[in-house]
Protein: Tripartite tricarboxylate transporter family receptor
Organism: Oceanobacillus picturae
Amino acid sequence: MKKVFIGIVFVILLIFSAACSGGDEGASGTEGSKEWKPEKPIEIVAPAGAGGGWDTTARMAAKVFTEEEIIDSDIGVVNKAGGGGAVGWAYVAGQEGSPYNMFVASPPLLFIPLNGQSEYGHEDFTPIANVIADYAAFAVAADAKWDNLNELFDDMKKDPSSITVVGTSSPGSMDHIQFVQIAKAAGVDVTKIKYVSDQDGVGLTQLLNGSVDVFSTGVSETVEQVKAGTIKVLGVTSEERLEGEVLEDFPTAKEQGIDATFVNWRGFFGPPNMDEEAIAYYEEKFKELSDSEAFADIRKQFGWDEMYMNSEEYQQFLDEKKGEIQSLLDELGLGE
């Protein structure tokens, strides 16, 4: 009887052991399942020439990814300029499903398609992550009669077309719309604003020689000229004053009683139909980038704010912004 009892106990232990072993194997199979990670070089497209916001963002991200060992694979940045970004977008659209191609983008990805200048919009790509917020600055010559936005907009309310605003983007795109959005909140008839497009990069020269009155541009593009004493910034479009030398002296539109902001979001997109595991991988890596001290130093250097959004948050944000921009373009008669 004792032998029978021992035999039964032994069989029970074997069954229990087999069950545990099978469970562990299943758990390790789940936990140890191979998550996607890049096995080939990654290409980031800056859809513009060297030195601009897209190019700088792409190169700074690639630099931190590599130097901080956030991503092991080689990362290359290539410039594909043309069409306000449309040439680069078309190139990435042709890499459907690839987890090794992406591009950096900002509001023109919404503006350009709405203007009918590109067949590709944000819906045609895979939003991966947004990483920074940049802002607009409205500058005038150092000896201009206006010392703040309210003085400028008071004159524009009287005769909007008497004041010429220059920007590097085309009518209906970023430099134009960022100014229009703030001017509208200040009570200016935005349909009568005289905006000229500087496609040759001489907007600052035009401002300094008196050919135009106001320069609508990015905050970082004004710093050196303010230091040199050739221009003054009447206002920036951030919620609060920016941090950093010179930047901290720029007043916001909001603190001047104009209840409006404009954010130049900047983030990364993959081709259409990108694999979910690849998206998850890059979301995690861009969050690590955003949280790193190295990238915080870069944000401070360029006057950027932290603005991380994951893929789903980014998609919702873009859909909302597209609706706002469409309304403004329709008011200006610039919608498609």
In short: The chain is about 40% helix and 20% strand. The domain at 135-263 is CATH 3.40.190.10 (D-Maltodextrin-Binding Protein; domain 2). The chain has two domains: 42-133+264-332, 135-263. Residues 1-33 have pLDDT under 50 and may be disordered.
